[in-house]
Amino acid sequence: MAVSKKEISACPIDAMLSVIDGRWKGTILWRLSEGPMRTSELHRTIPGITQRMLIRHLHELVQDGILERHQERSTPPCVRYSISKYGLTLLPVLEEICTWGRKHLALQAAG
Amino acid sequence: MAVSKKEISACPIDAMLSVIDGRWKGTILWRLSEGPMRTSELHRTIPGITQRMLIRHLHELVQDGILERHQERSTPPCVRYSISKYGLTLLPVLEEICTWGRKHLALQAAG
DNA sequence: CAGTATCCACATCGATACTG
DNA sequence: CAGTATCGATGTGGATACTG
């Protein structure tokens, strides 16, 4: 869109959507809601995602305060991502979204 | 995105987001939650939206069953849009999204 | 392993002009 | 007034190769 959702927007709905908007962010949060994970682990368990998009989305989520990045200084490097305390406040909302979405899919299937 | 959110997706979150995704859909639903409105009325009260995008989003929302379109056969034509019974089930979720978004904006403003 | 750099494809959106 | 058609801009994501 011409006005990127990344811009500062006065609309609270857009503000929230901008955080979870992105092809894979929902899936990423879903996986991480089960516990911290390494980058490569996420990469393996999310079919179809490219490394570029994975890293990109992870960093954006960190930027927004939703995720935390823990790096163990070692060779080769080991980075773990987890949902931050702030990110936890997002999960109930995602649940609601998911619930509605499930019903919507069921209705679509029914015709 | 390459895989359009309009595609049939097995992910409930994407399913819900695809319904409200679109530069202006949040705002449109917001306005219509206060009551039915004519196309021109919406056009006037949503600053910056073009006629094309307004109509486009309205029709998509009708397609998804969220809105209802009432046409009075007259010259010139008079069309009113309102939130459908099904669309009403979406509003509480939008409220949740909005609430979280408001807090998020407040935090951003705080730094 | 984690992350970056390029390059490209495509969907969405905006501007404008037009129709019934 | 409600809606369509056309065209161009651009943002987002994908493929691939590369670095520390």
From TrEMBL, chains A, B:
<protein>
    <submittedName>
        <fullName>Transcriptional regulator</fullName>
    </submittedName>
</protein>
<keyword id="KW-0238">DNA-binding</keyword>
<dbReference type="InterPro" id="IPR036390">
    <property type="entry name" value="WH_DNA-bd_sf"/>
</dbReference>
<dbReference type="InterPro" id="IPR036388">
    <property type="entry name" value="WH-like_DNA-bd_sf"/>
</dbReference>
<keyword id="KW-0805">Transcription regulation</keyword>
<dbReference type="Pfam" id="PF01638">
    <property type="entry name" value="HxlR"/>
</dbReference>
<feature type="domain" description="HTH hxlR-type">
    <location>
        <begin position="11"/>
        <end position="109"/>
    </location>
</feature>
<dbReference type="InterPro" id="IPR002577">
    <property type="entry name" value="HTH_HxlR"/>
</dbReference>
<keyword id="KW-0804">Transcription</keyword>
<dbReference type="GO" id="GO:0003677">
    <property type="term" value="F:DNA binding"/>
</dbReference>
